[in-house]
Amino acid sequence: MENKNLLTMKQPALGKRISELRKQKGLTQEELVEKCNINVRTIQRIEAGETIPRSFTIKTILQALDADINVDNIINEIEISNNDRKVLNLAWIFGIIYFVFGVIETIADVYHITQNEMIFGITSYACIKVISAITFVLFFMGFIKLAKKYSSKLLEVIVYVFMITYVFSELYDIFLISSSNETIIVTSIVELMSIVELIIFGTIQIIFGLSLLQLKTKFDSLIKVNGILEIITGICVATVVLSSIGLFFLIPTIIIEVVVLYKFAKS
Description:
Blueprint: H1 13-24, H2 29-36, H3 40-47, H4 55-64, H5 82-115, H6 122-149, H7 153-178, H8 184-213, H9 220-238, H10 243-266
Helix pairs in contact: 5-6, 5-10, 6-7, 7-8, 8-9, 9-10
């Protein structure tokens, strides 16, 4: 196989070919690390087919190996394993469930804020919040898989932050609704916390969108649309005053997220 075809190979074939090229040069993994200044664990994982390197990483390794290639034609095609495919399939399915419960939850929250009364009982409301939290985590596990497949540390970290923050937010809402304290001081604190919550979620969503825009995949256009929608939604939410517009943008944003995971699961 010619070296120029190395850039279109999928794992684990890519890792095996890099290993062959390294051995042909008479280099150990440690010696290759010295030449390309890449972590030895990264080299080990690439050669073992455990991770998909970024285009820049492939370029650096191949240059260190003096491989005769056209580095401007790097294509990062990724083979989705059967196990990852199962996770992605479950993720988009839970994404649909999350979307349904998210709509119900939002209606209940808005009604409670505007009318100062509950549509559902406390137990039913708490169950909706818990289901929403669980389905959100399972939904976004799909993006964790994508982050690992495309070696995007930023995406992986921000998704974990997103999941943890969302779960704590849902638990906090359950705590508030279960509390009977309605004093002026408590109400002011709740309003302040709501503003802080919007700013935090908006910021997380902006970073999430930016991390998606950095991914180089075969569904580039779809990922870019998703990333842009995330950023627009995040900006609206973070400004607080435009949070209602953010809720409007959140609908197509979640739908695109589901479509993204569906496309990768079926690819």
